[in-house]
Amino acid sequence: MDRYIRKFFIFPSMVDILKNYAAVPGILDEVVTDRNADNSYYRRFFNTLAEFKTQDIKSLMEIAKLSFLNQGITYALYTKNESVEQIFPFDLVPRIIRQQEWQQLRKGIIQRNTALNLFLHDAYNDGKILKDKVVPKRLVKSSVHYCSLMENFTPPQSIYCHIAGTDLIRHADGNFYVLEDNLRSPSGVSYVLSNRIAMSRVMPEAFDNTVIEPVFDYTNQLRSALWNVSNRELGDIFCVLLTPGSFNSAYFEHTFLAQKMGIELVEGRDLVVQDGFVYTQSIGGLIRVDVIYRRIDDAFLDPFVFRQDSMLGVKGLMDAYMRGNVTIVNAPGTGISDDKAICSYVPDMIKYYLDEEPIINNVPTYICDRPKDLAYVKEHIKELVVKPVDMSGGYGVCICDQMSSSEIDDLLRKVEANPRNYIAQPKILLSTHSTYIEESHEFEPRHIDLRTFSIFGGEEPYVLAGGLTRTALTKGSLIVNSSQGGGSKDTWIVN
Amino acid sequence: MLARVAENLYWMGRHIERADFCTRYLGVQFFTSLAGPMSGHKDFILRSILYVSGSSFNTEAPLTEQDVWQTVIFNPLNPNSIFNSINHGRENARSIRNTISSELWEAINKWYLFCKQRSHEDFTSSDLFWFSEHMVSHIALVKSNMVNTILHDDVWHFLNVGLSLERTLQILKIIRSKISDISILSDSGAIESLKLYQWSVMLRSVGAYDVHQTINKATLMSNETIFKLIFSNDMFPRSTRFSTRKIYTHLSKISVNSEPVQSFTSGFKDKMDAFNTFSDFSNEDAVIQHIEDMEKWLLESHTIIQDLFFLKV
Fold first, then answer.
1. Are A281 and B96 an interchain contact pair (Cβ–Cβ within 8 Å)?
2. Residue A366 has what DSSP assignment?
3. How many beta-carbon contacts under 8 Å exist across A and B?
4. Is residue A403 part of a domain?
5. What is the pLDDT of residues B159-208, one digit of tens each?
6. Residues A281, A272 contacting (CB under 8 angstroms)
C-alpha cells in the first residue's frame, strides 16, 4: 500500500518500531526520557513513523541518500591515495529539544562567546586577564594559534569571532556541557539547512501538528553581520567567501553559503592586493573587496607573513587588514580560544568579564601543562580521554579505557614529552538517541552531540535554532565526527 | 563576474558539448552500421569512433568493441573519454556552484553519477543502446536547465560562447573524419552506396538527417546538398554558420566594453562573415581547406578569449 493510501487509511495496530530498542543502562537516552514525559514529541514522531513498514523506512532512507547524492551534498574524505566524495549520513529520526531548554542554552552560548570575544581583544591588547593571572599568560603565548600580528590591533566593532561553533554534549545528569569551542572556521551549518530540507521532503507527515523553529534565516543573519563589520556603506560593500577550492572537504558548504548569501565564492588566486586594498579579478577589471569570510586557516592566509608555501592565500592580505581596508571573518588569531587548554578557562573568563556565573559549564578538563593536573592524568589515565589541544574533527582523541597497555605507555610518553600539547577529560558518556541502523534495519541507541552556530557582529548576537546533531553510527562509539564515520540528524526546537 | 568564474563557464560549455557530440556520434556510427552496407566493416567503424572521440589507439592492432567502449566512454586515463569530458564539465560547474542554478548543477551531477555508475569492465555492445538513450536524456535535461534556470546575462553568454565554439569545432571534426573515411573507402574500391552511407551517418550524428531530407525534397543527397546544410544554413542550429553566429552574438553581449574586447568582437564578426560566404561545395580540396582555416581561426579566437577575460596568473 503506498504512502498516499496509507495517509488516509491509517492502520489501527501499528508495529511498535521501538519494540527492540534497548537504551544502555547508565546513559541518558533522550528518546526514552522524553517518551515517558507528558506531551512527548518523540511519541508523536514515532507514531507517525509507525505508519511505515520496515521496507518503507528503508526506502525513505534510500530516497534521502539519493537526494543528497544528486544535489552533491557531500564532503571529501581523504584516504592515503585519493579524495572520495561522501554523503554525510543523514538519520531519519530528528533530535527534539524543547523551547524552554533551548532558550537557556541559547543564553549560555551567547554568554560564552561574548566572553570569548572580550578575551580575544584583551589577550591581544591590554592583557588584563593575563596580568591578573586568571588565564596563564604562558598558555596563551605558547598556543600554536597565537598571532603576534594581532597585538595592539582591534578589528571593526571589536569582534574577533564572528561565527562560533560551540560543541555541546548532554551528560547522564541531564545537563548540557561544553565539550569544545570552534572559533576558527566552524563547519557543518549547511548540513543543518540541508537536513531540514531532506526531512521535509522525505517525511512531510512528521511536520504535521508540530511547530518547529525555522533555520533558514541563518544566511541572512550572516550576511547582515558581514555587512555590519565592513568599513564601507551598504550598497558599496563587496563581500566574498574565500575557499581553498573544490578539493576541500567542506567545499559543498562554501558554495552553499556563498549562494544563499548572494556573495562571490573566491579562491586565493582570484584576489590581489594593490596599494593596501584587496581586489578581486573580474572579467572587466579589479573590484575592491571589503569583507572576506575566509574558510582557510590562518597559516595559509598570506604567504608574506604566514606560511610562505601557501597557494591558497593572498600576498599582502594581512597588510590590507592591518590598515583597516578589509575585514577578515573570523579574525586571524582567534584559534587561541579553541586551544583546548585555554578553552577550559572560559568559565573564569565569563566571571572576569561579565561578572556572571556560566550558564553552560565546561566538561571538567585537566591541563597536562599544570604539574598537578599532569600527575592526576598519569595516575588516572585509564579513566580519562586524552586530546591534543590543537586538533579538531575527532583526530588524535584517545579514549584510554579502550587502549592497550602499550598504547597507553606510548601516549604517556608523548604527553610527558610535550605536556602543553595535551588535555584530559573524564570519559563523558554522551547521551544516546534512537538512530536507524542500515545493517540491522532497526532503530538503535547511538551517542550524539550538538554543534551550535552563533553569529556576532550583527545588530545583536544570533544563535541558529538547534544546530547540527551529530551521531556516532558505530555501536558504543563516542566519536561523532563526520571524518570518523559519524552522521547527522535534523534538530528540532519545538514550542 | 569573476574572471575565474567566466573561465569555468566557458569550459563547462565546451566539455558538455564535447561529451554530447561524442555520445551522439558513437551511438549513430555503431547502430547504423549494424544493418547498413557497412555491416562487414566493423573495424573501420570502431576506428572512426576512436578518431572522432580524439582517443589515441594502436593503428596496427585489431580492435574489440568492448575495448573501444572502455576507451571512448569510460577510461579515466583517456583525457578525451566521454566520462572525462563530463567529469571536467562537472568540476567546472562545481567550482562555480554558487553562480549557476541548483537545477543545472543537479542535472550535471546526475549525468556524471549516471556515467560513473555504469563504468565497469563488462560493459558490452548490448548495454550501448540503453546507455546512449539515458545519456541523451541527461544531456537534454542539462541543456534545458541551461536555457531555463539561469539568468541570460554574462553567465549565459560565457557558457554559450564555450558551447558554440566547441560545437563548431566538433562539426568540423566530424566532416573532416567523414571526408577521410570516404577517401579510404574510395581507395579500397568501395561502391557509391557506402560513401553515401557515410554522409548519412555524418548527418545523423549532428541531428541533421531529417532536416536535410526536408529541405532537399526534390534533390538527391550529394556532397553539395550536405555541405550547404552543414556550412551555410542559417536556420539549422548545428550548422557552422549558425554556431559561429551564436558565438558572435554572445561575445558581443558580454558586459565588458573595453577597447580590446570591442576590437576583438568586431574582428571576429568580419572573419565570420568572410567564412560564411564560402560556397565552393563541389570542390573537396576547397572544403578541406575551408575546414582547416576555420579550425585555425577558432583556436586563435579561443586564445584571445582566454587573454581578454580569464584569470591572469
1. no
2. E
3. 65
4. yes
5. 999 999 999 999 999 999 888 888 887 777 667 777 788 888 889 989 99
6. yes
Cα distances from A482 to residues A191, A469, A473, A488, in angstroms, run 11, 11, 10, 8
A264 to chain B: which residues are within 8 Å by CB? 2, 5, 98
Residue B106 touches partner A, C-beta closer than 8 Å: yes
**Does residue B8 register a pLDDT over 90?**
yes
For chain A, how many structural domains are there in total?
A: 1
Going edge to edge, which strands form the sheet with A239-242? A264-266, A239-242, A291-294, A327-329
Contacts with B182 (C-beta within 8 Å, 6 or more apart), sequence order: B195, B198, B199
Query: Domain span at residue A380?
Result: 364-426
For residue B126, give its domain range: 3-309
Inside any domain, residue A375: yes
Q: Are A325 and A336 in contact (CB under 8 A)?
A: no
Q: Is the pLDDT of residue A4 over 80?
A: no
Q: Give the CATH number of the domain where residue A387 resides.
A: 3.30.1490.270
User: What sign does the dihedral A239-A245-A250-A255 (CA atoms) show?
Assistant: positive
d(CA A89, CA A484) in angstroms, rounded, equals 12
Nearest-CA distance A253 → chain B (Å): 10
Closest CA to A228 of A316, A322, A293, A300: A293
Any domain includes A415: yes
Among A69, A71, A267, whose Cβ lies nearest the Cβ of B4? A267
User: Which positions in chain A touch B97 (Cβ < 8 Å)?
Assistant: 72, 255, 259, 265
The radius of gyration of chain B's CA atoms, rounded to the nearest angstrom, is 20
Cβ-nearest to B1 among A255, A269, A282? A282
Write out the three cell numbers for B295. 579550425
DSSP element (H, E) containing A41? helix A41-49
Select from B1, B188, B217 the least CA-distant residue to B99. Answer: B1
Task: Report yes or no on A160 lying in a domain.
Answer: no
Q: How many CA atoms lie within 13 A of B251 on its CB side?
A: 29
pLDDT tens profile A56-97 = 888 888 888 888 888 888 877 766 566 677 888 899 899 999
Percent of chain B clearing pLDDT 70 (strictly above): 96
When divided into structural domains, chain B yields a total of 1
Name the closest residue on chain B to residue A259, using Cα atoms: B98
By CB neighbour count within 10 A (0-12 exposed, 13-18 middle, 19+ buried), where does A140 fall? buried
* Candidates A240, A241, A283, partner chain B, best to mutate (most B CBs within 10 A): A283
How far does the CA of residue A80 sit from the closest CA of chain B (Å)?
19
**Chain B: nearest CA to A475, how far in angstroms?**
31
Rg of chain A's alpha carbons, rounded to an integer? 23
Please choose, from the candidates B123, B106, B111, B256, the residue with its C-alpha nearest in 3D space to the C-alpha of residue A73. B106
Cα distance between residue A326 and residue A237, in whole Å: 10
Q: Mind listing the pLDDT tens digit for each residue in A419-476? A: 988 999 998 889 999 998 888 888 899 999 999 999 999 999 999 999 999 999 888 8
